[in-house]
């Protein structure tokens, strides 16, 4: 049975409880978490999209967060499929590393 988990941090962030601006959040990516890097104050997650026209895309989207609950959820999602929403105005369409903005919501499959 496939259970989808919703990060409570994402729920709080998307409702503004944590102060995240989500009115313009429009970069949504479905993909595999390939790497999570923590700097001590923030966490970056790298996502290889699964809805790309290429069999194995040669690019990744990356999102950042300073929310500890969101960072923990993303870290435990390494090598899993997620849907992540960031506050970038739109998902970039060029470059090897494509910024999705601050992560505001994540679903883990």
In short:
The protein is mainly β and 109 residues long. Helices cover 14% and strands 41% of the residues. The longest helix has 8 residues, at 68-75.
Task: Walk me through the topology.
Elements: E1 5-6, H1 8-14, E2 27-38, E3 43-49, E4 60-65, H2 68-75, E5 81-86, E6 97-108
Parallel strand pairs: 4-6
Antiparallel strand pairs: 1-6, 2-3, 2-5, 3-4, 5-6
Write up what this structure looks like.
- The structure is a single chain.
- With 109 residues, the protein is mainly beta.
- Strands 2-3-4-6-5 form a five-stranded mixed barrel.
- The protein is built from two helices and six strands.
- The longest helix has 8 residues, at 68-75.
- The protein has helices at 8-14, 68-75, and strands at residues 5-6, 27-38, 43-49, 60-65, 81-86, 97-108.
- It is globular and about 35 Å long.
- Residues 1-22 have low confidence and may be disordered.
- The chain starts with a strand and ends with a strand.
- It has one domain (5-108): OB fold (Dihydrolipoamide Acetyltransferase, E2P), CATH 2.40.50.
């Amino acid at each position: 049975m496939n259970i989808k988990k919703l990060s409570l941090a994402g729920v709080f962030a998307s409702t503004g409880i944590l102060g995240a601006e989500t009115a313009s959040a429009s970069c949504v990516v479905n993909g595999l978490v390939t790497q999570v890097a923590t700097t001590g104050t923030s966490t970056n997650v790298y996502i290889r999209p699964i809805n790309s026209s290429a069999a194995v895309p040669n690019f990744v989207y990356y999102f950042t967060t300073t929310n500890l609950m969101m960072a923990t959820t993303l870290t435990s999602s390494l090598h899993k499929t997620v849907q992540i929403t960031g506050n970038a105005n739109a998902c970039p369409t060029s470059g090897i590393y494509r910024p999705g903005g601050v992560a505001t919501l994540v679903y883990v499959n």
